[in-house]
Design goal:
It comes from Undibacterium terreum. By secondary structure, the protein is of the alpha+beta class. Helices cover 44% and strands 19% of the residues. The termini are far apart.
Length: 107
């Protein structure tokens, strides 16, 4: 068995990086804190603002005959929950007006 030694002239020099491991840790920690604070700000959105945004999106899609109702988070419903607001203390419920009218007529 023959062992070959690497040729020292072809050996690549180690590359020097401009950032240290400590710099990279600071960068990742900062990015994580920024993302966490963005989530907190989004969750604290006032209900009236979120309701307006949802109504705008529904109008853009051509949806008509509906109501959006702001209720407590603990309220149970069979209707679709389309958002949560006030730091996740309340939720916004989407009700189709035609659906309620059909239910009343069938009774």
């Amino acid at each position: 068995m023959i062992l070959l030694k690497p040729d020292p002239s072809s050996h690549q020099e180690e590359q020097e990086y401009p950032y240290t491991e400590r710099d990279m840790r600071k960068l990742f920690l900062s990015a994580g804190l920024i993302l966490a604070s963005a989530q907190t700000l989004a969750a604290a959105l006032p209900c009236a603002d979120l309701q307006t945004k949802i109504e705008t999106k529904l109008a853009g899609k051509g949806v008509k005959n509906y109501t959006l109702e702001i209720v407590s988070k603990d309220t149970e419903t069979t209707n679709r929950v389309v958002g949560s607001c006030d730091a996740d203390k309340k939720k916004i419920i989407y009700k189709r007006a035609g659906k309620a009218a059909k239910a009343e007529k069938s009774e």
